[in-house]
Amino acid sequence: MSYSQNAEKLEEYTASNGVTYKIGDEIKLGRGSDTNGKFVYANVGGWAVSTNPEDNRLGAANAGLIVTVKKINKYNHKRYKGVYFIVGGGNITNYTLDIENAIQSCEVENCAQESQTVTTDKYDQLAKLKKLLDDGVLSVEEYELEKKKILNDN
Known about the structure:
- This protein has 154 residues and is α+β, with helices and mostly antiparallel strands.
- The chain has two domains: 4-104, no CATH class; 112-153.
- Helices cover 31% and strands 27% of the residues.
- The N and C termini lie far apart (44 Å).
- Pfam families: SHOCT (PF09851).
- This is SHOCT domain-containing protein.
- Residues 124-151 form the SHOCT domain.
């Protein structure tokens, strides 16, 4: 399926995770989000594409692979929308990376769930700390010291 004529070519793209990606940048893949560990949003591209979409998914063994951004394309076709990176993983085959869905599913590092986890963990820790103060387990001084550590670490 070729939508290249409908692609807006970008030099850089600021994604929902706050990272501005540019051509030449490296991205570390996270884990595949499919139940079998395969990647859903990172697929084989170029000459090696199979007619079976399942065959195009990167396998679970590619977790941690560092890929280089070669092209950034933005599509606004009625059935094909979003920002897709053409990336290389050090071999002769290029891959297509649906960057926003990869961020949401943590198929790339610096993903949405990682930033939510840090925020949630910080507030969970503060709530537990406050309960220890309220229950008399911690003194006010101990509470303030621990609270400061949590806030400074995050």
